[in-house]
Amino acid sequence: MTCCQQPRSMVITNDLVHSPTGRIDFQSMNAFEIHHLLCKLEQTPEQSVFGHLLLPEQPSGLDEDPQSTEQTVPCVVACHGSRGWREHNDEHVKNWLASGIAVFKIHSFEARLVDSVVEDQMMVTHAMMLADAFSALKLLGTHPRIDPARIAIAGWSLGGMVALYAAWLPLAEALAPGGERFAAHLPFYPAAHVRPDEQRWSTSPIQILHGEIDDYTPVVLATGLVEQLKPLGVDIDIKVYPGAHHSFDSTEPITMLEHAIRLDERTVRIDLDGNMTGEIAPGETIPLNEPAERYAAIQRTQLVGAHYGGQTEARNQSRIDAVDFLTRTLLE
Per-block average pLDDT, block size 10, for the chain (332 residues)? Predict the structure, then answer.
């Protein structure tokens, strides 16, 4: 784990009725685990977070003045991975803006004085980032230039997990009781190891993009989830890029992160009461609700060391696939 410098003082924004762009500070919360979002939300401490709102220069298919306040555009809430915002994430953002889609980049790490959680996944968790994402969704719905019915979510790795499980309705109902929901979900190589007993999912489309030989967040977890949900009528698909590692959409060389905390094929269960458990060894299940329990699991499993790096074919195709999915779900 590495820490950022102290951020500037935040001025919390409660609505966006004056059409701001650029940096926007807003209120979220610091829930450690999904269990706390489901069962202990009222006890969860608040957390100030910020993001950057980028509007397209020209809304897709429109010839009017791009600064007109009468136009509305779709938007993507974008969530970074365990190394924070990277150059390849921004390449996707540029493509989406060029397609006429606004983007709201959430800075979940920087707001909490963290640069990376590669070696310590407890500093900023997926539950914290889920809270950030839904807080952003609710706030963006007040912006005059953004269509609240066309706000999607995308994310990479840890952020991909956020983009994926934001489609699980018990979470959405807890974090957005007013009914705000994402219109589409685009997870890049997500951690897909959580298996809820309560199978209620969004009707919005989910498109997972994953690498065949990912040993950081193994693709078998994502394909397993897709195979479980498709027969239930969930609109979920996965595209697997042959020979591609984690972060296949980057231009970085294939690199071994020796101390990165990774997943294997084991899953985590959420029961109907919101309690989380995992099988740590054959026939041995342990609770995973609280920080001490997750730390104990990490110490027991010793799952460390994973590769990341780009692959030209997967990188190029995934950029096309991402734009195609967002265009189909938000612009057509």
Answer: 56 93 98 98 97 88 50 97 96 98 98 96 97 99 98 99 99 99 99 98 99 99 99 99 98 97 97 97 96 95 96 98 99 93
| DSSP string for 11-49 | ---S--TT---EEEEEEEE--SSHHHHHH-GGGSPEEEE
Q: Can you give the length of the chain in residues?
A: 332
pTM, full prediction = 0.94
Under CATH, which number does the domain 22-57+71-253+310-331 receive?
Answer: 3.40.50.1820
Going by C-beta distance under 8 Å and a sequence separation of 6 or more, which residues neighbour residue 131?
A: 28, 29, 30, 31, 37, 44, 47, 175
C-alpha span between 88 and 70 (Å, rounded):
33
Q: Alpha-carbon distance 290 to 281, whole Å? A: 19
Q: Is 283 helix (H, G, I), strand (E, B) or coil?
A: coil
44: which 2 tokens? 């969860």
